[in-house]
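Annex B. Sample input.
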Amino acid sequence: MVRTVSQDLPLDADKHPIFYAPTMSPLFKKLPGFQKTPAGLERQILRRLPHVLWVGTLLAAIGAGLMRVLPWSGSEAEVLTRITTVDIYLISLVILHWTAVFTVAIGAFIVMVMKGPAYVADAYPLPDAEHPAPEGAPRS
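Annex B, continued. Sample output.
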């Protein structure tokens, strides 16, 4: 049996069905007449980001690998110091790269969500809507 919101609720519940809704569907009511904006650059960016993430990480890994393959002059301690220094720089570069890609992904996702359908906001009941408190009076 399908029950409507107003069958088992107080009389004023029809004004605020969000608090009594048995499902999530009443929470997201699309604004009538709103047209979605077509997808743009943000979708292209989101599609390319995994590729950009892996290519940037792979380039840093190739750099670290080349440091170990190329011949070095100097003592073994100097060579290990140089390789370790380059490794530290490359690790920090990878972290910076991942952070930049993640930041761009957040921005593109926000643009994508904002281009989506508009939703009707639910009414917020004001307790003193009928008789507003006088100016400067303490609010309860």
